[in-house]
Amino acid sequence: MNAEVTEYLLDNPARAATRPVLSVLIPFWRDDPCDLLRALDREAVRLDKSVEVVVLDDGSGDDALAEKVAQAIHGLAMPARFVRLMRNQGRSRGRNRLAAHARGSAYLFLDADMRPDDDRFLTFWADLVAREDPALAFGGFSLKQAPKDGKFAVHRRMAMKAECVPFDQRARRPEKYVYTCNLLVRRDAFYAENFDESFTGWGWEDVEWAARMSRRYTVVHVDNPASHLGLDTVSGLVAKYEQSVGNYARLVQEHRELVSQYPSYKAAQLLRKAPGLRGWRPFLKSLALSPLLPSATRAFSLRLYRAALYADAV
């Protein structure tokens, strides 16, 4: 009986006989990474095959999209590999699997819905590896190129306040501001502390990984942002928060001393003491979802709803 095929590989012509220093690792699940690939490839001549790209389709099951990505990979001037998984592995296992295909001495994890904010984006990272070779460095992200549709106003407001933080401010709490959307990791450091594959669903696996990494390595923050184009609607955020409660509970259990400093934990602790909290949750959710309310009110309600969900985990 033949063994089940779990992944398909496609290498482009530029990948042969190259020894890249930096591997750009891009996982996706039903998101189209082709525009990102084209944006990165604009630096190909300058980088002279010192940077490769590895793209992983984490079981999207979309043949048309896979064919489109395969054609884009084949046409890149940069060395590139496309890995297509037949079954979804999840965020942690998928990233670990991506790393297994990388050949560089450093990895740059980059989400498929990101776009470089500077035309020397990869050159900056390659120069940093050559000059300092940090174990872990985060470049930051912005909403410079993100859509400004009204349906994304709440997420935009929340991201601008909590996540789009200048590098000098991030450096004050280095372990807190680590997201896998624009993250450089040295190869040996990654294999000392890779992603915990027992995390499933959405959320917190990158924070848990960063907590372990920060105990062993210095977390460097630099000013090399990319735009996050994948803003969510409020209903999309609600679904993710509801799905993430189990992961948040694991994070608290394993890193309570660190997580207890975060606003999400403090808010959850306060709400835990509120009488009738379970009855309040649907009300907070309805406020967040109401299109009649100002985006500031909806964002505040959504943060409270998330804290109310996490109250059971603290």
Report on this model:
By secondary structure, the chain is of the alpha/beta class. It has 2 domains: 7-231, Spore Coat Polysaccharide Biosynthesis Protein SpsA, Chain A (Alpha-Beta Complex); 232-314, no CATH class. Helix content is 45%, strand content 16%. It contains 14 helices and 11 strands. It has helices at residues 34-41, 44-47, 63-75, 91-100, 121-131, 153-162, 167-170, 187-192, 205-216, 234-243, 245-259, 263-272, 277-289, 295-310; strands at residues 7-11, 22-28, 51-58, 80-85, 106-110, 114-116, 136-138, 141-142, 182-186, 219-221, 226-228. The protein has an 8-stranded mixed sheet, with helices on both faces. A 3-stranded mixed sheet has the order 6-11-8. Helix 3 links the parallel strand 3 and strand 4 (80-85). Helix 9 (205-216) runs parallel beside helix 11 (245-259). 41% of the residues are buried.
List the helices and strands and how they pair.
Layout: E1 7-11, E2 22-28, H1 34-41, H2 44-47, E3 51-58, H3 63-75, E4 80-85, H4 91-100, E5 106-110, E6 114-116, H5 121-131, E7 136-138, E8 141-142, H6 153-162, H7 167-170, E9 182-186, H8 187-192, H9 205-216, E10 219-221, E11 226-228, H10 234-243, H11 245-259, H12 263-272, H13 277-289, H14 295-310
Parallel strand pairs: 2-3, 2-5, 3-4, 7-10, 8-11
Antiparallel strand pairs: 1-4, 5-9, 6-11, 7-9
